[in-house]
Design a protein that fits this description.
Number of strands of chain B: 7
Number of helices of chain A: 12
Structural class of chain B: alpha/beta
Helix content of chain B: 25-40%
Strand content of chain A: 25-35%
Protein name (chain A): Protein phosphatase 2C-like protein
Number of strands of chain A: 19
Distance between the termini of chain A: 96 Å
Distance between the termini of chain B: 25 Å
Oligomer: heterodimer
Domain PPM-type phosphatase (chain A): 164-466
Number of domains of chain A: 3
Radius of gyration of chain A: 38 Å
Largest sheet of chain A: 6 strands, antiparallel
Pfam family, one (chain A): PP2C_2
CATH superfamily of chain B: von Willebrand factor, type A domain
Strand order of the largest sheet of chain B: 3-4-5-7
Number of domains of chain B: 1
Domain VWFA (chain B): 8-146
Strand order of the largest sheet of chain A: 8-9-19-18-14-15
InterPro entries (chain A): PPM-type-like_dom_sf, PPM-type_phosphatase-like_dom
Chain lengths: 467, 196
């Protein structure tokens, strides 16, 4: 501003405006150099105050500005770009970013990037030292705290707390077994999921199997106790044991003699009439076993003064028998555990059961729900007669979820082939299960293989393979 | 909510996020979204994986209406659009959990009541209404959900206890269950009164 104009404005503000008749006098006043200099001085000082104030404001705004840099995770490569343009920091000179070293990260002032592999988790406050354009060379740098969150390594968070073995329904946290099964072989492993181990909770999964030599029938059952039900570990145990015992008794008691005759004839005569007769037998035998499982659990719950829903468990089971022309495989299933039959040349798979999957994760149906038996059961049975097969597999969702993810994949032979290759060692841990009846370590191998890591999948795992 | 209570809420919420971050299961599977409702309804944080989640400071105006109904409307839209349902080719998300926190009562009562059946139709795994302070209306929340807790004071300690309970509840949320059942809630802390 012109000093002369400033003086005129000043007089105006101070209620002593220069009147028209004082114009000449004002001109003369302003010709005094010392007055003009005083006005110039004031203007300069005003400017200084204004500049300092806006600089202070700017610094304060920057300090208060919420800026976010992405979270990191311990052990995972981290890289973040300070978005100075997006934050509107064009007038900033970034000097240092302190506090990164302790985390295991470093700041590159050239690229304005943070890089490294975090070693420590926590809520950190990084100290950014900066200057704003206009600040004196020797001014003390300003400081801004920027939050940085480093998540712990999820793997490091899992604890293994043993379950309470004095609990009346206690079962071993893990188990693995292999045995001959008729003219085939079986290997089975079941172990507590990390989410259960983490809290000292029990293994809720279970399995049971037996071969009945007189009749030639083999029975295998797998059950997954509901995480939300307090005695589900016992529900799954009763379900498996009941089915094996019930069907064993029937088989050995000669109840399947007529079914045997029908199945003997199956290959030479596959007319619908025969199919129907077989279906009826399956319905009665397997449906009877399922119902028996329900009854046993119901009776047990009553005895305990508990509700049957406290014992919620899914249930899948299969009956297998070798005939001259091949194998008959009969199945039943309630819940979200699949049964897959892989053909001899691994070129085809038959998904024996339809899963009960709700619209939300973890939602399914249980053998302990009376409505299962009120609804039409017929969709729950499976039957297949094959000359030979590579493997018959029964698994709980602890295996199915991470390895197949969705139901549609269970229909795809490529997925099953991938699953077999995974078992054969094609995995990150190079864990291998040598599916050979003469392999003495097979059960241990399966148990070790089952420790695979899959984010978000930490449920109990049970896998039974008949090969 | 203003002054000390909102400060306490921020602290407690941030404490809860930290607790969840150190929970193996939560860190692996939890997603969080925060919607605030006062005169304005705002999705403060869109649905974000806990690993990437950053909690901004929650601020509220000193006075004005509490548009709970509008808040529910936004929640309904978001849950419908964002929570993935299980199909043959898509893994379903765990059932979402809903926590509503208020120190007042709905100003938009008509919309609030219209939204209640819609919100219920979303089948949340658990729905918890929390009324904080003397001015909060328990009975209005009761219309929305059977689980209403009342905090007499909204101080840091009470809120911390409350959010500890919330995180315990969240940790219950990923267990297999019948398709129509809801999540069993852990017992609430002593500072929290379950409104019967």
């Amino acid at each position: 501003m012109d000093p002369k104009l400033y003086i005129e404005k000043l007089f105006e503000v101070k209620q002593m405006p220069v009147a028209p008749h004082q114009a000449a006098l004002f001109e003369e006043f302003c010709s005094n150099a010392s007055y003009l200099e005083a006005a110039t001085d004031i203007l300069r000082k005003q400017q200084l105050l204004m500049d300092a104030w806006s600089l202070n404001n700017r610094i304060n705004d920057i300090k208060r500005q919420q800026v976010m840099i992405p979270n990191g995770t311990v052990g995972k490569v981290y890289g973040a770009q300070l978005d100075t343009t997006g934050w509107g920091w064009q007038d900033l000179v970034l000097l240092e970013l302190e506090g990164l070293e302790a985390i295991g990260l470093a700041y590159d002032p050239e690229t304005q990037q943070i890089r490294g592999i975090p070693e420590q988790n926590g809520d950190f406050k990084l100290k950014l030292k900066f200057k704003v354009t206009g600040e004196a060379e020797d001014a003390v740098p300003n400081e801004k705290l920027i939050p940085l969150i480093i998540n712990p390594d999820p793997k490091s968070l899992w604890k293994t707390t043993p379950s309470d073995n004095t609990d009346p329904f206690w079962k071993a946290d893990e188990t693995a077994v292999s045995a001959p099964l008729g003219d085939r072989h079986i290997v089975a492993a079941s172990k507590r999921g990390r989410s259960h181990a983490n809290t000292g909770a029990f293994r809720d999964d279970d399995f049971a199997f037996a071969h009945f030599a007189t009749s030639g029938w083999s029975v295998v059952a797998v059950s997954d106790g509901a995480g939300s039900a307090k005695f589900s570990r016992q529900g799954s145990r009763i379900a498996c044991d009941t089915v094996v015992q019930y069907l064993g008794n029937k088989a050995e008691g000669g109840d399947f003699a007529e079914l045997d005759t029908l199945l003997e004839a199956y290959n030479t005569n596959t007319g619908t009439d025969l199919q129907k007769k077989i279906s009826l037998h399956i319905y009665q035998a397997l449906g009877g076993a399922a119902q028996q499982a329900y009854k046993e659990i119901e009776a047990f719950a009553k005895e305990q003064g508990a509700g049957i829903r406290d014992f919620h468990a899914t249930l899948i089971f299969a009956l297998v028998k070798k005939y001259k022309s091949g194998y008959a495989v009969l199945t039943f299933g309630v819940g979200d555990c699949p049964i897959g039959l892989i053909s001899k040349d691994r070129s085809a798979v038959h998904l024996m059961n339809k899963l009960d999957v709700g619209e939300f994760g973890g939602g399914t149906r249980f053998i302990t729900m009376p409505e299962i038996f009120r609804d039409d059961l017929s969709g729950r049975f499976g039957f297949k007669f094959v000359e030979d097969f590579t493997a018959l597999m029964l698994m709980t969702d602890g295996i199915y979820d991470p390895k197949f993810e969705v139901e549609a994949n269970l229909e795809q032979v490529s997925k099953w082939d991938g699953f077999l290759r995974d078992l054969e060692g094609d995995n990150a841990d190079l864990a291998r299960v040598n599916l050979d009846a003469d392999n003495p370590d097979i059960a241990t191998e399966l148990s070790v293989w089952m420790d695979f890591w899959s984010p978000g999948n930490h449920d109990d795992r049970t896998l039974v393979i008949i090969f | 909510m203003f002054g000390e209570p909102i400060q306490a809420l921020n602290n407690a919420l941030s404490g809860m996020i930290n607790t969840l971050r150190s929970d193996a299961q939560a860190l692996d599977s939890l997603w969080i979204s925060i919607v605030t409702f006062d005169r304005e309804v705002k999705e403060l944080v869109p649905l974000t994986e806990l690993v990437n989640f950053q909690l901004p400071e929650i601020t509220c105006p000193q006075s004005g209406p509490t548009n709970t109904g509008k808040g529910l409307e936004l929640i309904y839209q978001k849950v419908t659009a964002e929570v993935r349902k299980g199909t043959d080719t898509q893994k379903g998300d765990w059932r979402p959990l809903f926590f509503l926190f208020t120190d007042g009562k709905p100003s938009d009562i008509q919309l609030y009541r219209e939204m209640i059946p819609k919100i219920k139709s979303l089948h949340f795994g658990a729905m918890v209404g929390c009324a904080a302070g003397q001015l909060a209306d328990d009975s209005m929340l009761k219309e929305l959900t059977g689980t209403v807790v009342h905090l007499d004071t909204a101080d840091t300690n009470t809120l911390r206890q409350f959010f500890k309970w919330v995180s315990d509840t969240i940790e219950q949320g990923n267990k297999s269950m019948g398709t129509v059942e809801s999540v069993a809630l852990p017992p609430p802390p002593t500072e929290v009164h379950l409104v019967i």
